[in-house]
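thread: overnight batch results

M.L. [08:02]
morning all. the overnight job finished for the chain we discussed friday. pasting input first so we're all looking at the same thing
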Amino acid sequence: MKKLITIIKHLVLCTACFVMIFPLIWMVLGSVKTSREAMNPEMILPDIIHLENIIEVVTDSPLLKYVGNSLMIALAATAIQIVTGAMLAYAFSFMKFKGRNLLFGLVMATYMLPSCATYIPCFVLLAKMNLLNTRTGLIVSQCVSIFGIFLLRTAFLQFPSELIEAAKLDGAGDWRILWRIVMPVTRSSFVTFGLISFISL
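M.L. [08:03]
and the structure it wrote out:
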């Protein structure tokens, strides 16, 4: 009975995997077909594999430039989001000042705003800074992640406050404490945030 259940589970998983990967397979097969073959849904495999289609896309279009721009912007924005998110999360976790909880609540309230509500203000700001249609403008407009602040703050709150106090007694500043003590211990949260940020950009 257990063997039968195991077989059924594997069949279900294999079916689900095929359903998920089928669009990718169809796209790859379509890329090596002629236009007529690609428009014929009954023709799954091409008569002749046309690799020149892929070569033409790479050589005759600025595809590599597009990919390079996207990669550069995503990497730069992710790096800046990690730094700004860590700094703000550290302030909300370990620094004591009046209105800290209120300020954090306001920051988190902005997370509930639909992204379309920020399009016009961002456009106006970037226009005033002469950053429209530039890579810098794309990076600057995404240099802070509210989700990242929340994620890192949650991880920082689990960090022993005694270690922070001990480091301050030894003369360490907040910047050094953040990157030399807190970050190595909460590295998994930084990695998670970085991956999510990079994928979403």
